[in-house]
Design goal:
8 strands, Archaeosine Trna-guanine Transglycosylase, Chain: A, domain 4, 27% strand, 6 helices, single chain, alpha+beta, globular
Length: 165
């Protein structure tokens, strides 16, 4: 079965340039989810530097909801580019670090006012006005998902990918 994935046009350009090598997708909430248990499981997983989620049944259950798996080849809707999922993880949206956010390929340019600083793209206002990478990422998430989804469901699948022929 062929799988597809959607990206905003500006992000497709980032993929084609090689700047975007990851996408983050909000995990659909389940009324039976216990956020505190999920958070604790993620903390333990990180603390033990676990390579997989086998020892964490709560996280295994979340994995059962993921749309894509490592090794899947995806067609980008509206593009001839194909991607292969190379890595997948579960995270809290607020815990994504700078290196992970850089893989999102968010648009930026050097700030004319502050040396060694950047201005980032605001995906809602369609202009370069964000002062941080995280602020730019937040505007993108709010554009892609209803605000309440982002606020009420803080867990995400993080998919790393590469372009394939």
């Amino acid at each position: 079965m062929k799988k597809s994935i959607e990206f905003k046009e500006k992000l497709i350009n980032s993929i084609e340039c090689g700047d975007k090598t990851q996408t983050v997708r909000v995990i659909k909430a389940n009324p039976l989810d216990n956020s505190k248990t999920i958070e604790r499981s993620l903390e333990l997983h990180k603390f033990h530097k676990a390579k997989d989620y086998e020892s964490y049944p709560v996280l295994q259950e979340l994995l059962n909801r993921c749309k894509y798996r490592v090794g899947d080849t995806l067609n980008i809707n509206g593009s001839s580019v194909k991607l292969e999922i190379t890595k997948m993880s579960i995270n809290r949206m607020r815990d994504l670090d700078y290196d992970q956010l850089k893989k999102e390929g968010l648009a930026s340019f050097p700030s004319p006012k502050i040396k060694n600083s950047f201005t980032y793209y605001d995906y809602i206002e369609n202009q370069y006005s964000c002062i941080s990478l995280y602020e730019s990422y937040t505007t993108l998430m709010h554009l892609c998902y209803v605000f309440s989804v982002v606020v009420n469901n803080p867990f995400v699948f993080v998919y790393e990918f590469k372009i394939v022929e």
